[in-house]
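Section 3.1: Structural characterization of target chains.
Under the original work plan, the team committed to producing a structural model for every single-chain target entering the pipeline before any wet-lab resources were allocated. The record below documents one such target. The sequence was received from the expression subgroup and is listed exactly as submitted; it comprises 391 residues.
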Amino acid sequence: MISIEDAIKAVIETSNTISISITFPIERALNLVLFSDVYSPINMPPFRQSAMDGYALNLHGDLTYSLVGEIKAGDSYQPILKKGEAIRIFTGAAVPDSANAVIMQEKVISKGNTIVVESNPVEEQNIRPIGEQVKNGEIALKKGTKLTSAAIGYLSSLGITEVSVYKKPSIALITTGNELIEAGQPLTYGKIYESNSIMLKTALLNLGFDKVSIHKIEDNFDDTYNELQEVVEKNDMVIITGGISVGDYDFVGKALKKLEIEEIFYKVNQKPGKPLFFGKNDHTLLFALPGNPAAALSCFYIYVYTALQKMTGLKNTLTKVMAISASNFEKKGDRPQFLKAIYNDGTVTILEGQSSAMLQTFAISNALVKMSGDLDQIKINDMVEVLLLPI
């Protein structure tokens, strides 16, 4: 049985970045990762730009200036100011080459065709120089940058309309279990509603992974083997929930062995999620998560999320912070444990209902408290390690 730390390390070392690029319009590239450096095709700003509403001045030794006109944002008007002349200007407007400072309107007294300034500004005050953000030909964003809304807005301001990004992995979700039925069907005795597939699919969609297919396998070896053979061939990642244990009707492990999926590890010293399998073949990563929903989702965020980040050109794991516990908690057993919790501004509350089968508390969680194996309790005001969930 492998430790949590060694399991995460193995996931990072085994997961390879998909070295295929796709060109995307920037408005559709949210949360994708740049495959190559992006160079600016222009200076930004492309002209000397006023940083505020006020007056552009050709400085001289007096506080009084003659007012000779007005420039709005978007005007191409380029007057030549003589010394001692000023022109009304607005934020974002092009500053004439003959002006060497902009003074904010709050520091000016207007008297008809003249203005009086409180004091002469220093040269280039309140003027954004050409190429202040980025110069023509410079790297605007580096390879490996995740395209947030701000990054997309920035590239758009440079006139860029499409980008080369890492191909998103195709992912197959497989659920196993004869006891599972779809929501909306009558709930007959012995059956339960299947939730893992939609839970994991929406988690993937939230992270920006939309090439997801869902497959249901009955509890028999032939169906398990045939379905796995097909999805492993067609996808970059396969995520299975349930069927990985060693019961009489758990066929996933046997099928993976026949498919010659290389086992990287099986079973992690943790709670929940001990019966976790991670393996690969030449082109596909495979996770077999526990069937219990809370355990499956915990393993998804700790391990699958890490693999997906690496596959798409990032190196992120869950964000770790230290926080003050607002709760008491007693742990049974000596395995490290991930506890569903609510984190808020340096404080974390450990929730009731930590069973691996229970999603009720996970539904309101935004974090997991990692409790080491050598601890048997957490007390109020103890400092604890918290993993923030990307939700």
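The helical segments are 4-14, 149-157, 196-206, 221-234, 252-258, 293-311.
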